[in-house]
Amino acid sequence: MRILALDTATWICSVALVRDGDVRAERIERTVASHAGTLPRLVDEVLAEAGERPERGDAVAVAIGPGSFTGLRIGLSFAKGLAFASGLAIVGVPTLDALALAALPWTGVLCAALDARKQEIYAALFTRDDGMCEDGTHDGGAIVRLGEPVAVRARALAEVLTPPCSVIGDAVEAYGGVFREVLGAGVDLLASDAHPPRASALARLAAARLARDPRGDDLVTLAPGYIRPPEAELTQSAGAPSAPLLASSFVDKVRLLY
């Protein structure tokens, strides 16, 4: 199966074509404006390099958030149009899950963190589960997400982390100094320029979903996962922070299947 994967959740636009687990082509580009022009061009470049394109029965995977409201809408609209026109299955993949899967080897806890503006971060924590699976086999250190993604102040997030830990994502550029101040040498900061989001990681998660349910997501009802309401829907003041982060937010383990 071919999977065309699109990630427009941040200022970095990433597109990949993956066939049966093999990355046929991938493009990663930082944009300075809207992804509306960048995304179609990168898709054309990826398909040209791969020398093939998804056909009926294949799939398109798209990052569904959290992330830039405008970026998510552009990516999802493009993916839905392509899926409808070409008869492809569509799979929405959480942005932070794909970012964690794209990270280099890490120890302790990995924090995938994106700059949410308004002095906040979209964040999710990940660890490796070395326990036993339900069928009695060892999971080999599968990546698990601890709870659901949250929108939180940088210092509150840093105070929840325990060294050794790593932080990956564009929040490192915006708030790396806060993490370093709180965690000292115990935190490894993985900036997005050197460790960008990769659409190929998004495709791996989509492939796992499709292996369990070949239908994928519903083309009509699939929607972005914003976490925080879009600006037009906010009823609180522009400077009001989200609810305080509690350590209990990062308890339940959600295994990433890939």
Task: Write structural notes for this entry.
- Helix content is 29%, strand content 29%.
- It has 258 residues and is an alpha/beta fold.
- The strands form two sheets. Strands 10-9-6-7-8-11 form a six-stranded mixed sheet, sandwiched between helices. It has a five-stranded mixed sheet with strand order 3-2-1-4-5, sandwiched between helices.
- Helix 3 (95-102) crosses helix 6 (199-212).
- It has two domains: 2-94 and 196-230, Nucleotidyltransferase, domain 5 (2-Layer Sandwich), CATH 3.30.420; 96-194 and 249-255, Nucleotidyltransferase, domain 5 (2-Layer Sandwich), CATH 3.30.420.
- It has six helices and eleven strands.
- It has helices at 35-50, 69-86, 95-102, 154-160, 171-183, 199-212; strands spanning 2-7, 12-19, 22-30, 59-63, 89-93, 109-117, 120-129, 142-153, 165-168, 187-190, 253-255.
- The chain is globular, with a radius of gyration of 18 Å.
Short description:
This protein is 29% helix and 29% strand.
Number of domains: 2
| C-alpha termini separation | 15 Å
Helix segment tally: 6
Overall pLDDT confidence: 89
Helix content: 25-40%
Please write the CATH class name of the largest domain: Alpha Beta
CATH topology of the largest domain: Nucleotidyltransferase, domain 5
Strand order of the largest sheet: 10-9-6-7-8-11
Number of strands: 11
| CATH-defined superfamily of the largest domain | ATPase, nucleotide binding domain
Low-confidence segments, given as residue ranges, are 135-139, 234-240
Can you write the helix and strand succession as a string?
A: EEEHEHEHEEEHEHEHE
User: Beta-strand percentage?
Assistant: 25-35%
